[in-house]
Amino acid sequence: MTTQRALDGIVVLDLSQVYNGPYCTMLLGQLGAEIIKIEPFGGEPVRWRVVGEQQTAAFDLLNGGKKSVRLNLKHPRGRELFLSLVERADVVVENFSPGTLQRLSLGYDVLARANAGIILATGRGYGAGTPQSEQRAMDLTIQAVTGVMATTGQPDQPPTKAGPAVADFFGGTHLLAAITTALYQRTVTGNGQHVEVAMQDAVVPSLTSSIAGYLDSGGALPERTGNKHSGLAVCPYNVYPAADGWVAILCMNDGHWQSLCRLMGRGELAEDPAFGSPPARVAQMDKLDEIVAAWTAEVTRQELVRRLQDVGVPCSPVLSLSDVMTGPLVGADGMIRPVLDPTGRTTYALGNPLRLPASPPVPATAAPALGAHTDEVLREQLGIAAAELERLRHDNVV
């Protein structure tokens, strides 16, 4: 029985690097697209960052199942080969600094002349029309300029970046949506297009609670609220000490609050009109946090979570990275999947958060060595013979 996946038959030329674009193309590949990763002679930056000679775990996580082609786009013959691949492809993904493709004479107008149906997908840093639109960007700079840093950390401490690379990955996810939408539109119009997603634009909606708190209070709320609700609109909402760690607990509605009070043996609080509404509880947030913390501190994480879940109060243990890497997220069907590379080394690949019952997941495989598929791709896609491949290597084209 033939396995049919959502993007079977779609060919993606992946010029992207670091996290933003490679995450987008990883997802495309897990939906069935063929991902041909075009890399410069030294490989993309994340291959060797920090580790040196050994391929990094970051590269492994984001590039499993892709084909690596080493191609010199600064060489005229290299650009010619790339445009020949564009003629047979559906999507080109890039997140270079602004103007790079144009300097390589590979802007959208050039690609579209080679293939009117091509979709060029660009991951940008800053939104069009912003003062920084033509500047280089990284996750940290986007967190700084969007308010993510200003709203992260404790109120009496400096702005703090979010631990995860939220801008890179939010941007990559939105770029996936733009590509699949453009592919669908192409089925109607027959034409490709140049789609763009700025990390700056992709991150802003995640600040909804903070923005709403600012607007609702007329700008009076503190920007940084620590582990409290970022709009200071929900209470209890915090991380509380357990006997052996920490547990996150929140009461989104009156039912949650009343269940928590009864569980703590404090039924009188549930009946007290002074705590009878979300605004009333928020007004006494510090006092309620002390009451909840005094109760949680005497109970283990596991027992706290069991009791809270039994009465329907949203909660979770606060897990360390060590906990995560030894927990259920790691495994053959998890979000972090162990795989063997061609040398027998155990590496890891990321799983796919997109669940499509009619599109079975692509089995996880190891990330490719630099240029491992150059001959295969040029031979199969362009019909280039072995002698010509040897000449291309001699001329530093591949």
Q: How is the main sheet built?
A: 6 strands, parallel
Oligomer: single chain
Q: SSE order in H/E notation? A: EHEHEHEHHEHHEHHEEHHHHHEHEEHH
- The low-confidence runs, each spanning 5 or more residues with pLDDT under 50, are none
Give the number of helices. Answer: 17
The general outline is elongated
The fraction of residues in strands falls at: 5-15%
Gap from first CA to last CA: 38 Å
- For the secondary structure, the number of strands is 11
Structural class: alpha/beta
Mean pLDDT: 93
Helix content: 25-40%
Side by side, the strands of the main sheet go: 3-2-1-4-5-6
- Output the radius of gyration: 25 Å
What does this structure look like?
39% of the residues lie in helices and 14% in strands. It has helices spanning 20-30, 57-63, 76-88, 100-103, 108-114, 139-146, 166-189, 199-203, 208-216, 254-263, 267-271, 278-283, 285-296, 301-310, 321-325, 374-382, 386-394, and strands spanning 11-14, 34-39, 67-70, 91-94, 119-124, 194-198, 237-242, 245-250, 315-317, 336-340, 346-350. The strands form 3 sheets. A 6-stranded parallel sheet has the order 3-2-1-4-5-6, with helices on both faces. Strands 7-8-9 form a 3-stranded antiparallel sheet, covered by helices on one side. Strands 10-11 form a two-stranded antiparallel sheet. α1 links the parallel β1 (11-14) and β2. α1 (20-30) packs across α7 (166-189). The longest helix has 24 residues, at 166-189. The radius of gyration is 25 Å and the shape is elongated.
